[in-house]
Amino acid sequence: MKIAVFPGSFDPITVGHVDIVKRCIPLFDKIIIAVGVNSQKKYLFPLEKRMEWMHKVFENESKIEVSSYHGLTINYCKEVSANYILRGIRSAADFEYEKTIAHLNHTMNIDIETILILSPPEYSSISSTIVREIILGKGDVSKFVPQEIASEMHL
Ligand code: ADP
Question: Which pTM does this prediction carry?
């Protein structure tokens, strides 16, 4: 069984994240969207909310599971028997960052492959950081987040 983990903060989920997941569905038997819990990081939205939104967006996709995890992504992969890590690439800066992490992960566990998926041009400027700024500024995020949860995305 081909199992992939898509790790991230998803604070909050954007149309860019959804696009990556949807395009990977035909490639794997199961994709676990793993919402990271990092005690060093300050999040705008609580873990429960970030997971609830994921559940709502993917409730009709039988191959998708939503979960949370602490610690290293490769340890979590081992725990859930996943051999693939999915990450999205929007820019050269994303690539450099992801390359470093992928090399380190591969050095630590040779059985886990990182799969990098390019975002389409129309989504390559969308980030959770930008969406948070718009929410904090009381702007309209409906073009950047999945439509089924857009109305709930406020503080
Ligand atoms: P992290 O804090 O781990 O970077 P994010 O939630 O910001 O978590 O991102 C999770 C993954 O989704 C990363 O691989 C990131 O590059 C990717 N990603 C974020 N926004 C987009 C987008 N607009 N298009 C494609 N991939 C994206």
Answer: 0.96
